[in-house]
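Typical record was shown:
=====
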Amino acid sequence: MGISRTTVKKYLKQDEPLIEHHRAVRQRRQRLDSQRDYIIHLLKSFPGLSATKVLAKLCAKEPQLAVSERTARRYISRLKAGLTVAHQRRYEPVLDMVAGVQCQVDGGELRGVRIGELDRTVYFVVFVLSYSRLMHVGLSRVPINTDTFVAMHDAAFRYFGGCPEECVYDQTKLVVLHEQYRELTLNQAFHAYASAAGFRIQACEGYDPESKGKVEAGVKYVKHNALAGETFADWSALETHLQQWLEETANVRLHATTGESPRQRYARDEKMQMHSYLTPDYLSQPRSPGATRQVDKTGLLSWKANKYSAPLVYQQARIGVQEQGTQLVLTALDSGQEIARHSLCQGHGQIIKNTDHYRNKQQQIIELEHLICQQLGDSAGECLCALLKTTSPRIYRDQLRGLKSLLERYPMPPALLRQLCDRSQLTTTQIRDYLRAYQGHPERLQVPPQSPVSGHPPPDKALTPYAALTLSTEGEHDACH
């Protein structure tokens, strides 16, 4: 039969069910098996790669490969089914939201909207209650700033008749100025409004619009259903049209997901769960024009051709500015409280700073000096610090940082330390060069015995015969005085 005796013995020892299992799972060899590892590499590196693209790469790699696209598609589909791709996003089922908890907020714009005789860009913000899908839209002629964004929230909550527990946003600068390790630095003016209105700010991760998909769909709905293909006589006609669209179309339609009208679902289940909302007092207070300034990233604001400092907590925020006699008073826009006060400068191009608004550099210098004295001893440490300060006063703090780093890496020989302290000028770079030279050739640092006369460095051996003459001369000179 052409079968090995060993093979016969192996099958005789096995149970019949095990033999049947091996026969059932046995597969015939396929044409792409020789390229299996390469295909898996492509699918892991580029998870969205189509079967047609994979086949094109295979043919470029193996021109003699004869396989149809249909065969390749089937083979690749079977590989994908059992392949774990690290880059693939995992979606989780979203449970029905609790009524009155969440509102998703997102902005959009549509170019080429015919208003009057011109094509204009319309800016808008969409608010969607996650439970009922009740929608509100705020409009703007110009790009939306923080004040407009806050006013749109106020209008939306008054339209809903209440305020949810939280609002979800993407990482727009209107809400989030900076994010690191999911720790958010919020726009202070908007955060103040949220605190006064009584809702939490929830920001999505960067570049992750799918985490607030309800309002993303709402933005598309406004663009393609409410605005696309429409012309308006003026801006007022646009506002009227959008309000009618909300009342007659968006909020009364049969929603595809909930199967109910958003208005009916809101009135039945959600309205009673919303928090009561009152417009914060400061929004209704008139603001004098020109009384606000933007603080730049260095904590300075411009006022009448001069720059004044503000506390760094208001960095890149907008604050109120007001002259009171000879004083310039800075106030927080959210509360109206005074945050800083400067004497008005009568010149031009001046920078008036309050050092309390910035980090205390002097405290850092004191700490560095203390650490250096601990490592070198008080006398030698104070001497080196004094030399560095005399040589480079403008960069003294940086010199101390460098010296601290050097002392952590290199041991300081006492003899070298004495030589450094005897110099008239010294920089951290010079200390580094001395330490490196000592590490390479420690024998070059040969220090002779101390001189018997206090206060004088030990003389060189070659000049020993002249030491007595030199010291005697100096002593006579001192005696004359």
User: Anything to note?
Assistant: The chain has a mean pLDDT of 80. The chain has four domains: 15-81, 102-273, 288-357, 361-451. Residues 288-357 form one domain.
